[in-house]
Amino acid sequence: MADGVVRSKKTQNKTVARPRTALLTPFLSSNPCPDLDLCPRFSLSESRRSSSSRVAGVEDEGRTLEDFSAALAMNPFSSGTRLRDMIKAIRACKTAAEERAVVRKECAAIRSSISENDQDYSHRNIAKLMFIHMLGYPTHFGQMECLKLIASAGFPEKRIGYLGLMLLLDERQEVLMLVTNSLKQDLGHTNQYIVGLALCALGNICSAEMARDLAPEVERLLLTRDPNIKKKAALCSIRIIRKVPDLAENFSSPATSLLKEKHHGVLIAGVQLCTDLCKVSEDASNHLRKNCTEGLVRILKDICNSPYAPEYDIAGITDPFLHIRVLRLLRMLGHGDADTSEYINDILAQVASKTESNKNAGNAILYECVETIMGIEATSGLRVLAINILGRFLSNRDNNIRYVALNMLMKAISVDSQAVQRHRTTILECVKDSDASIRKRALELVFLLVNDTNAKPLTKELIDYLEVSDQDFKGDLTSKICSIIEKFSQEKKWYIDQMVKVLSLAGNYVKDNVWHALIVAISNAPDLQGYSVRSLYKAFQLSSEQVSLVQVTIWCIGEYGEMLVNNVGVLQVEEPMTVTESDAVDVLESCLTHHSTDITTQSMCLIALLKLSSRFPPSSGRVKEIITTHIGSVVLELQQRAIEFNSIIQRHQNIKSSLVERMPVLDESTFISKRAGSSQANISTEKSNQQLPSGASLKLSNGVAKPAASPLVDLLDLSLDDTPVPTSTSNDFLHDLLDVGLTNSSSSGVASASGTDILMDLLSIGTPVQSNTTPENGSSIKGFNDILPIAKPNTATVQVVDLLDGLASNGSHPGAQSPVHPSITAYQSSTLKITFSFTKQPDKPQVTQIHATFMNLSSEAYTDFIFQAAVPKFIQLHLDPANSNHLPASGNGRITQTFTITNTQHGQKPLAMRIRIAYKVSNQERLEQGQINNFPPGL
Amino acid sequence: MIHFVILLSRQGKVRLTKWYSPYQQKERATVIRELSGLILSRGPKLCNFVEWKGYKVVYRRYASLYFCMCIDQDDNELEILEIIHHFVEILDRYFGSVCELDLIFNFHKAYYILDEILIAGELQESSKKTVARLIAAQDTMVETAKEEAGSISNMISQAM
């Protein structure tokens, strides 16, 4: 409780004069109908100075409960403090700890008093407990005491007992059931005030069970003569039928009779009861429609035309509360019923046109009247009247009135959207209001108002406002603007323009799926790609802090970098601009190195850089440098990418261009339908994969791609499962983007297909070993597909390099593709790499000759190099001596060794082998071991 | 329907709570905390309505006290403002220029008055005079009981 400081200030003040602010200004007594706006909003400091002299009165006036208890006290030596003293003691506490101590002491005293069964103090105890309860301390031990008080005979005890019951208990507590009997007795009491207490308690906290038990008593009380009991019974019945709607029919005829009363309290309660009956029961509402419409209209007429009635007068209007309730009930009765609607037309017109609108009470009635007109089958004239009232409300200076007007216009839009459209400019102004409640309402209304004709100007207005709006409103505003843009864009250029604007103003608030959609749109518009990348580049120069703008820009530069530099597809409206290759690389480099860039963005940067190194061969060196700096990144994802890409640039120039080809175009309609589907359930990667229309059977969990038709999938799947990256949804679309185009790429030629296969596997590293040896895979490319995922998990990162080595040797010598069994990287660690290549004599399928090549990856030379191998029993192994036992450092030399393997169960069991390599590094012995499971099938 | 009524001081202290919908004790504390954060921070010229968890909270400040009532989306906010004012006026009549201290030391009286104005989250009486009369009558009954008890205790003490 940080109240301590505040309170200590207060107590200082108290020594001079208690802070005492009258809640209402004195003028109130002379003016019985003050406008709510004129009511005081004093600041505390002012009020302290003007603190009144009635303080002593509060202290000394003997109205409080404990005087009574003191009088009742039979034991003059009782130690309990009085309620007022306890409150004073608590208020005097300067710290929360002090307060807790006082409360603890009081609670202990109350507990012991309760356990001693001290009747005289029990109601004082309950009063104290209620105060303690308000402070937020547990008070459950007083619940039984409340029940005891209720069961006692006197009115004072019952009064405090029922109050305690309502405050300390709620309807879910089982203790409450114990009070049913007392309630039943009190409902039949001869004293009307005791009946009133019981009704009040029942109305406020009764549970469904109690409602069933006591409904007959309440029903009986509805027919008594005393208006005080009648109105309470009516409200109690409301609670009962809300809890147990089945009981509604029992109440409908007594409720009808209440409407004939003259007493306003009974009328108000009766009308409210009828409204609730209409809500729960069709029968009751038909019954009321038939029998009561006339009576209700008469009531409304009477109070509309009544002369000044001081008892019920508020702001010159007789009983606005009754007004409002009758109007509400008439709405229930007139809804969907033409006859009733016609019957009440006149009186509604009278209320709508005659009610004074300069005071809150009058406006409250008008508001309710408008709602009724909108809710029934009103004539068009009446509706025009209603809309005009709303128009007047909307231009009111009072924020409350404007708020309700906006609220009401939302309902009116379904009735008469043209009329609401007329207020468009005013509503748009409300979006810019300083009041959050009004802004929110107005924004929702604007969203409903947008149609094809006004979408452009409205979007412009909203985007203009986005620039200056409050930070905490930007989220709501951005998402609404984005959905308007998406929903109403008729031309792609407009859509791209607007999205770029939103991204640069509030890119941090744009949801991932929104900018994904933008990328899809751009990739689908070949004639606008150049334009898009240029405008994104320009926007990026101005606002590089907006995450989603940065991400879209990076993606586009990666894909369409050459369009940026070469000014491809310049539109007439564009201003010419010159961007050099190094400018484009600059953008990526600055993003990559910027301190606030997240991992997702950095990963995208690396990919874009790789793509640029192929698009801009002269910049390749620089790109390589940038990528190299991330080889030591502490983020696994970045390190991995950097190493892989580095190796692509360094060693695989020949395949690089096919590796980093432009992304295949994603079908927009597929994307949209999937987005709609996946946005419902929390987008789960697996789930959306199953929804793939193409029937591609890919599985992405753990990054394992089954040999289905969608290999590129993981390329942009930035949040790999093993690295926790915050963007859980971003990947979703991107891999979709890729996988849809998959069929294209595989048909476009073997080269690109092999590229994609490799890329798939680049990212499936680090997955658990998976044997995928399907013998029917004959082609070398398919072979790779199978080999690669079998990589050893511990050597994941570097292994890729080898993959590509293998590929390179394959790709560069087309002739080498003829052997059925491609070479494999049998083993790879940070220090050593072993590759196997295979030869077979066609007449002896079970015999394979393996040429092992050993390469030293470390910077020190190895001596005494010995390779050993072990095989299962069904295989025979014959090792030939190696050509050397000295292996120079850094791959500068190789050892080769040949051995022959005979698989006695050829065609039934695949090869497997355990290996051990021993060598010395500067005279220290080293040992490496491993298992080879990734032999090509068919050996 | 009014789901609950909360009176908050400017410092966020609860002065009165009345729950017409079932809220457990823990939920009540959460609600009060959330609402005091929402309402006490609002500027003076803003509208008196706050949207909160699918409900609307109508509040009105009188000197150092905020009177808050939580209602359904389709209830009449302007009317609730009138009900709050109705309540305050009755309190004012009863205490005679009511202030926050009255409500602290006589919180139970404020509850009695509220119980004559609202039941089951619905308005019970639109006449301030009637409410005043009913409260006065019940206060008199308490006074009478007190006097009787006093005279009995006197009789006992005299007899001893």
TrEMBL record, chain A:
Pfam families (UniProt xref)? Adaptin_N, Alpha_adaptinC2
List GO terms (cellular component aspect).
AP-1 adaptor complex
Q: Supply the alphabetized keyword list.
A: Cytoplasmic vesicle, Golgi apparatus, Membrane, Protein transport, Transport
Give any single GO term for biological process.
intracellular protein transport
What is this protein called in UniProt?
Answer: AP-1 complex subunit gamma
Functional summary from the UniProt entry: Subunit of clathrin-associated adaptor protein complex 1 that plays a role in protein sorting at the trans-Golgi network and early endosomes (TGN/EE). The AP complexes mediate both the recruitment of clathrin to membranes and the recognition of sorting signals within the cytosolic tails of transmembrane cargo molecules.
Give the species this sequence originates from: Zingiber officinale
Question: What is the membrane topology listed in the Swiss-Prot or TrEMBL record?
Answer: Peripheral membrane protein
Domain (GAE) spans 819-936
Q: Does the keyword Protein transport apply?
A: yes
Where does the record say this protein resides?
Cytoplasmic vesicle, Clathrin-coated vesicle membrane; Golgi apparatus
Q: Belongs to which family?
A: Belongs to the adaptor complexes large subunit family.
Residues folding into a coiled coil are none
Q: Which InterPro entries match?
A: Adaptor_Complx_Large_Subunit, AP1_complex_gsu, ARM-like, ARM-type_fold, Clathrin/coatomer_adapt-like_N, Clathrin_a/b/g-adaptin_app_Ig, Clathrin_app_Ig-like_sf, GAE_dom
Report which superkingdom the organism of origin falls in: Eukaryota
